[in-house]
Amino acid sequence: MIQELVDTKTTPSQGRPRSGRRARPTQRFGKRALLLALAVVYLVTPFIVQDYFLFLLSYSAVIALAGMGVVLLVGRAGNVWIAQPFFMGLGAYLAVALADRFETNFVVIALGAIALTAVVGAATGWLAVRLGGLELAIVSFGVVIIGDYLARQLSPLTGGSAGTATSSVEIAFGPINFERLGSFSAEQGLFWATWAAAAASCVLSTFLIRRAPGRTWVALRDNERAAEAIGVDVRREKIGVFALASAFGGLSGALLAGLREYVAPEDFSFTMVTLLMAVVIVGGVTRLAGAVVGALIVPGLEFVVSTFSDSPALDWLIKSTAEDSGFFTAGSFNLLVFGALILTVLLVEPKGLMGSAARAIDSMKKTAGHQSVRDEGTST
Asked: What is the mean pLDDT of residues 86-103?
């Protein structure tokens, strides 16, 4: 009788470690297979996709990079901050100024954009130490307005309301110019360059999230006073995450300057604020992968609206000129679509598409684990 009880108690406990040991190699294999698949997609896509769509995908990479900064600042650290377009504009205009005056390599331009925006971001982080919640959101609103005003008034540096040409900004790393990459087109080279920058930023962010900085950010988000009580330097951590997120915005702005033929204040106005908010909310505001998924979906919708605005399906709704009979311009209709998308996702799936996917994967893992335990119990 005693032996039967011992066997009954030890059999499941013996089975669980065995299933756990089998699960870990399976998970590692799955992650490696996913990384390999992403690498293949990264290398092969420029050969099977037309240049026009490659440009759209490169733009999505730039937006994903800026969105990662929003994820770190809003989703992970819990700061209500919408001023990321200000830092994108700062990085873009600095890139143009450096390229025009010094004809320097893009590596120097990118480092300059990162350094400047990180310093300015640290200053705004100091404001976040003193403010919070709605007050901080209002301040970020004001930062966007100030940025738009300065971009329009500082004409010698920014070109004013008309914008400035960015032909002098070429995305090149040392001797490798991605816009003149041998027999490849400029769109092919820019796709590889922009997504390489987005991937590197994602790896860096993932490394920080899984280590002490990431755990500290979550502690600040959940309960700032409790985090301070256990020894967290709230001032330092807030300034640090603001500097990092702003640097992501500056780098994305520099890449945007290299991607486009010109930049204007409208590129970094509240339209970009709405776009970035839609990107991170649709993908999942707490997940870096959410910024990538959202950046692939939301600009794609913007592209569809712009492309088919003259079609019979949308011609009655969207007007291309002031004399047309439509109700909205393409830009205002895009804002309407972004707003509707944000509201829909928040009502249906507040954690975004990646949150829903993570929940489905966890459910599948639990089901598979229970089934494995039952099978082992039956076999023994």
From this structure: 92
Question: Residue 226 to residues 220, 223, 240: CA-CA distances in angstroms?
Answer: 8, 5, 19
Alpha helices in the chain (DSSP H): 2-48, 51-70, 84-102, 106-130, 134-153, 155-158, 186-209, 212-222, 224-229, 234-259, 270-283, 288-307, 312-315, 330-348, 352-379
Q: What residues have CB less than 8 Å from 248, skipping those under 6 apart?
A: 65, 66, 68, 69, 72, 201
In degrees rounded to 5, what are phi and psi of residue 184? -80, 150
Q: Please, which residues have CB within 8 angstroms of residue 71's CB and are 6 or more apart in sequence?
A: 205, 280, 285, 286, 287, 288, 290, 291
Q: Which two tokens stand for residue 283?
A: 């993908």
Tokens of 355: 């949150």
Asked whether 284 and 342 are in contact (CB, 8 A), the reply is: no
Contact call for residues 319 and 325 (beta carbons, < 8 A): yes
Instruction: Give the residue among 85, 89, 94, 63 at the shortest CA–CA distance from 151.
Output: 89
User: Residue 151 burial by CB count (10 A; 0-12/13-18/19+): exposed, middle or buried?
Assistant: buried
Q: How far apart are CA 246 and CA 79, in angstroms?
A: 13
Amino acid at 172: A
Please give the model's pTM, rounded to 2 decimal places. 0.85
Dihedral sign for Cα atoms in the order 32, 35, 40, 41: positive
CA distance 294 to 290: 6
Question: For the residues 111-135, what does the mean pLDDT come to?
Answer: 87
- Arithmetic mean of pLDDT, 183-204: 94
- Cβ neighbors of 222 (< 8 A, separation 6 or more) are 78
DSSP of 120-154: HHHHHHHHHHH--THHHHHHHHHHHHHHHHHHHH-
* Dihedral in degrees, nearest 10, Cα atoms 136, 140, 145, 146: 90
Cα separation, 85 vs 146, whole angstroms: 12
